[in-house]
């Protein structure tokens, strides 16, 4: 357990908000769709332009060939063996009409589609016509530009709407996340409440609330059980202690009395834990000298502990002295029971540091915090594991901060910081 306050979510690389991810995905999808549609439209339009140009070239060639047969004159721009005629049309082996595409552009003229046919009885001469597609391709380029501009305008209009819609979704998810985070830190009264919509987010919110209800019921049942057990044990244990005190002195009797006192202390600790869990405790604050309260608390433990006041009589602090003594006493007893000597308590300003020179706190304790009836590593000694739990509960009640850590050179360090 690093500290008494709730553990925060682990920090990692800077997160990208969900709305920006959704907006980026929507923009990428829109760009992909626009690109695919644009390419398809461009290819279809270019193919249509070429097919219409070929049909026009065929028709022009047919008319020119009929006129040339009857009158011997060239019409419709027809030429005999023109110099620009593509190579594949220069030597035709049949009298069929053939076409070829010429992609050259000269002085903004082109590309062209040629249609050619061998002249019957013309000694292998070829009659050819051409259709210039520059105007149609210019129109195609304008269509491409219009599509790009329209796509950009649509993207610019759709992106803010996507960001807004994704922001609504992100806020709903953030509300569920904040509720789950509060539950994970121990606030079992946290609820998401009614969530608009009938989608997966609403289902998650309802599931989180149901989980919190279930955990709250189980925790209340556990707390009530602990309180009931402690109350039921208090009377018989008190009677057992009174009976043990009446026994004559002896080694066996002394051991019995010691075990009964341990049992009484355990019952009292259980009652204190149950009261802290139920929120039934209220601090009674007063202005007291911190160093003197700490020294008295250490003295009451009866353990050999060094106390240092590095501030030299600082101003009094406002706190509940009884609960402060309880915290310090538990930390000192824990240091002696599970740590190693020397144990030193240092008071400075509004801070109390309890340091021992034992094996230190187990990694599990630092990571997950103290667990009831669990003392961590075996080398830290024995006990019922409620001392640190009570210390943390009392610190929270006082609004103080209790941090548990290990010193670099070995030993456990508990730091209690009282807030203003």
Verbal overview:
With 420 residues, the chain is an alpha+beta fold. It folds into three domains: 21-142, no CATH class; 200-278, Signal transduction histidine kinase, dimerisation/phosphotransfer (DHp) domain (Helix Hairpins); 286-417, Heat Shock Protein 90, CATH 3.30.565.10. It contains eight helices and eleven strands. The chain has a five-stranded mixed sheet, with helices on one face. Strand 3 (112-118) and strand 4 (126-132) form a beta hairpin. It is rod-shaped and about 150 Å long. The two termini are 24 Å apart. Mean pLDDT is 79; it is low at 1-9 and 379-383.
Largest beta-sheet details: 5 strands, mixed
Based on the coordinates given, report the CATH architecture of the largest domain.
2-Layer Sandwich
Please tell me what the overall shape is: rod-shaped
Quickly name the level 1 CATH class of the largest domain: Alpha Beta
Number of domains: 3
Secondary structure tally, helices: 8
Average pLDDT value?
Answer: 79
